[in-house]
Structure formats: C-alpha cells, structure tokens
Amino acid sequence: MNTVQIHKHKVDSILRRHPWVFSGAIITETEDLTDGEVVTVADHKGRFLARGHYQHATIAVRILSFEDRPLDEDFFIERIGNAVELRKKLNLLTKTNTICRLIHGEGDSLPGLVVDFYNGVAVVQCHSIGMYTSIASIAEGLKKAFGKELKAIYSKSSDTLPQRADVKDEYIFGTCETPHIALEHGVKLNIDWVTGQKTGFFIDQRENRFLLGKYAQGKKVLNTFCYSGGFSLLAIKNGATLVHSLDSSKKAIQLTEENVALNKFEDKHGSIVADAMDYMKDLPEDYDIIVLDPPAFAKHREKRHKAIQGYKRLNAHAIRQIKPGGLIFTFSCSQVVDKYLFTNTVIASAIEAGRNVRIIEQLHQPADHPINAFHPEGEYLKGLVIQVD
Ligand code: SAH
C-alpha cells in the first residue's frame, strides 16, 4: 500500500479528525498513484495518521479510518451496519415513511458515499472513485444490514463521476421496476432513480415538508422549485385548499402531476411551468404560504456573492407579494452560504420589501443527513419560516 506524507504544519486538522487531505498538504510524490487507490496518510516522519481513498484532485485523500486497519469488506460491513443501525434507532423507517438516506458521506464516516433507501431498494451514488471501486463491499454491507428487506441495489454514479467513461448505472443486486412507490408521512410517491435527478428524490426536506403540513390547513399555497412535488403533497394531505406547483422543468412538473394523481389530489392542485425568478416578479394571484426551495445558487465560494443577490431578490419578491399574515418557507442548500449569512440575506429582503417580518422557525437538514462534528462543511441545508405582517 502506498503512503502519502503530510507537511508538518498540516497534520493538525487530521489529528482533529477532519476527513479531507488537500493536495497542497502532501509532501511526497503522487504522480504514480492511481485514482481510487487506498493509501496510508502519515506525518512528515512517516508516523501513521489515517487511511483513505486517493484521487488526483483538490481533495486528494478522503479519510475513511483514523485507525490502522484494512479498508476491506469487513470494514464496509461494520460502517454501513453502524449507519443503518442509527436510522433504525431513530425510528426513521416506519409504515408511513419508507424513504430514508442510509449513508450521508462524511456524516457517516464514509466520505464520498451516498446511499438512499426507497421502500426496499438502495440507490448508491459514489462521489469518489475509491468508493466506486469498493462497490462490491458496499453492496455486501447493505445486504448484511437489511437481510430480506432489501429487494435491489442500483448503482448510479455516472453523473457524479463524469471523468470516468467506464462508470455504468446498473442494478448490482436484484432489480426493481421504476417508478417504484414509496411513502413519506403517508403520502405516496413515484420514485424513479433511473431517470430522476440525483437518486430520484430530495429526501432532505422530509421534516420541513411535515412542518408545512402543520400550517397548511385551509391555506392557498405556492410551491416554487417543486421538483416532484413533495411540499405540495404534504400541504394537500393536511388540508390546503389549493396548491400551485411551479418548476422550470416540464419533466419535474410531469413528475409532480403523476404524484398528485397517485394520491388523488387533482382537484386541489394546479401546475405552472416557468422560471421562478421571472414568475415571482409579478404574481398573478394571492397566496397564504409560499415555498422557495431553489437549487444551490452557489456551488463554490467565488459564486457566493452572486448567489446572495439571487436569494435576496427571490425572497424580496415573495415578501412583497404574500398576503398579510402569510408564511414563507425559504431555503438554501448552498454549502458556502451559512445559516447566518442566509438569515441576514432574508432580513435584507424584508428591508427591501418594506414589510414587517418575524422569524417563526429555523430549519435544517434531518437526522438521516447527520453532520460529522469534525467536518462542519457537512452542514448545507438551512431554511426559515417567516411570517409577513
Ligand atoms: N423542492 C423540491 C426540490 C427542489 S430541487 C422537493 O421538495 O423535492 C430544485 C428544482 O428547481 C429542480 O426541480 C429544478 O428543475 C428547479 N429549477 C431550477 N432552476 C429553476 C428556475 N429558475 N425556476 C424554476 N425552477 C427551477
């Protein structure tokens, strides 16, 4: 096994169990290393620090273990078992909730790996070549953790590893027809990991959708950036009188309409295909509740300033036009925009709109998207519920 040695001044973050080694911290030659290979990380004197997956990239090593142990099948069986155990202990999979994120990368000490579970089917998404190379062990870990409850495993990493032409999206255990029906808070959802965005569904908004349900009784709701309509469904299930779902993608609106029909909610629902930024400038109707859940406006630090302007404009449009006493559920999933910056941006929107705003709820990612305490970068989803007087 190859060893990469770290600059004397760069070991502290590893001793604090941060799971990334940046390429600039490495003092040994790395040219001969292969993407995805397991390497030992050592200090400048050659003393063991950690073990992980190497890749020729800014994040050069993703650390999987701070103990001197092999990263073999037993390792994956243990880590995956541990992650699944946590979800079971937290009672996240029930009769009415059959959707859950099983592995959330660094949050489950498996950097580079995401696994989502949809009513018996695990969808694996690798963000590093090392994880893709370990897929057989990952499959074993999932099978051991679930036993007969696991019907199929679908490997979907061609989007996340575009640099590798040999990455195939395929079933690596069993098969399952799509769309496959799964439940969130008792609402039925068609999940299609083969053709859908990411692993097929945005699981991270589950608890925030539930909260919208709590406030939706008798309300008229506009759900922007709706994708497959999760927020809309929870609102209708909980007594909203009318919900309009908006997305710029026709395909997303089609998914939403199929989900609405699956639950027989058609009489309470309308859809709009439009650019949300444009549409929000001048709303043709009044709403009691508006949901703003845009895609990450900033994927990198350099884009942060522009992203903030985008969030500010979007929120100002909503604050200006919502009915008096109305609620806005507003989110950002840009990792580089932290909760303080996001809150300040929404406050700036309120100032611009010239209306009185109260922060009612502060929202974040759910328990199946845990944040590794030594990797604060894992906190990405933040939201507010604001009331506009
Ligand atoms: N709220 C969704 C997830 C949103 S994902 C849920 O609960 O599942 C972001 C969505 O925004 C995608 O469906 C994408 O098609 C849509 N989108 C991206 N840019 C947009 C724009 N300018 N206007 C409207 N929708 C947009």
Features:
389 residues; alpha/beta; Archaeosine Trna-guanine Transglycosylase, Chain: A, domain 4; Transcription Regulator spoIIAA; Rossmann fold; 3 domains; seven-stranded mixed sheet; five-stranded mixed sheet; binds S-adenosyl-L-homocysteine
Structure characterization notes:
The protein has three domains: 2-65, PUA domain (Archaeosine Trna-guanine Transglycosylase, Chain: A, domain 4), CATH 2.30.130.10; 73-185, Transcription Regulator spoIIAA, CATH 3.30.750; 202-388, Vaccinia Virus protein VP39 (Rossmann fold), CATH 3.40.50.150. The mean pLDDT is 97. The protein has helices at residues 11-15, 73-89, 129-133, 135-146, 206-215, 230-237, 250-262, 276-281, 304-321, 339-353; strands at 2-5, 20-22, 38-42, 48-54, 59-65, 99-104, 113-118, 121-126, 152-155, 170-173, 180-184, 187-191, 220-224, 242-247, 269-273, 289-292, 327-332, 357-364, 382-388. 28% of the residues lie in helices and 26% in strands. It has 389 residues and is of the alpha/beta class. The protein contains ten helices and 19 strands. It binds S-adenosyl-L-homocysteine (SAH). S-adenosyl-L-homocysteine binds at residues 202, 205, 225-228, 230-231, 247-249, 252, 275-277, 293, 295.
Write the layout of secondary structure elements.
Blueprint: E1 2-5, H1 11-15, E2 20-22, E3 38-42, E4 48-54, E5 59-65, H2 73-89, E6 99-104, E7 113-118, E8 121-126, H3 129-133, H4 135-146, E9 152-155, E10 170-173, E11 180-184, E12 187-191, H5 206-215, E13 220-224, H6 230-237, E14 242-247, H7 250-262, E15 269-273, H8 276-281, E16 289-292, H9 304-321, E17 327-332, H10 339-353, E18 357-364, E19 382-388
Parallel strand pairs: 1-3, 8-9, 13-14, 13-16, 14-15, 16-17
Antiparallel strand pairs: 2-5, 3-4, 4-5, 6-7, 7-8, 9-10, 11-12, 17-19, 18-19
Helix pairs in contact: 2-4, 5-6, 9-10
Residues 202, 205, 225-228, 230-231, 247-249, 252, 275-277, 293, 295 line the site of S-adenosyl-L-homocysteine.
